[in-house]
Design brief:
156 residues; mainly alpha; Arc Repressor Mutant, subunit A; DNA-binding transcription factor activity; HTH_MarR-typ; transcription; DNA-binding; WH-like_DNA-bd_sf
């Protein structure tokens, strides 16, 4: 894609994606912290475990693109708060599965509508078809970025 031969940071798409992602994350993080005492990694972990039922931390890392340390810290915090438990992983004795406790399921049931409300506030000015195209574009960008991660880096 050649839009311009000159780099202008504000028009550089990777920069724009990062800035927008940070703004959205900051907005949501503030709400989750105030309402539920959750960080973004903790909320993502709870949501993934709620959707999966039981999941290994490595699978959470892969799905969320969060690093191992972040996921581990979130899991430790959630287990410590009694929102999550660790169970045996029959397929891999070296790891364990994370599951929500009753308290974790209750919290998820409370947070989910608020998450959808926050999403609605952010995107209320967009038509449904615009959002469909936007999500499709994000998924295409994800796919390309994943396919490029194993390719050689740009040379100097």
């Amino acid at each position: 894609m050649l839009r311009s031969r000159e780099l202008r940071l504000d028009a550089f798409l990777p920069y724009r994606l990062s800035i927008t992602s940070n703004l959205v994350s900051d907005h949501i993080a503030s709400a989750y912290q105030q309402l539920f005492g959750l960080t973004i990694p903790e909320w993502r972990l709870i949501a993934i475990v709620a959707e999966e039922g039981a999941v290994a931390q490595s699978a959470v890392c892969e799905r969320s693109r969060m690093d191992k340390v972040t996921v581990s810290r979130a899991a430790i915090a959630m287990v410590g708060r009694g929102l999550m438990a660790r169970t045996a992983h029959e397929g891999d004795r070296r790891s364990h599965l994370l599951v929500l406790t009753d308290a974790g399921r209750e919290l998820y049931a409370d947070v989910s509508p608020k998450a959808l409300e926050l999403e609605g506030q952010l995107f209320e000015g967009f038509r449904p078809e615009e959002l469909e195209v936007f999500v499709a574009m994000l998924r295409r960008i994800d796919s390309v970025a994943l396919s490029l991660r194993d390719q050689p880096r740009i040379e100097r």
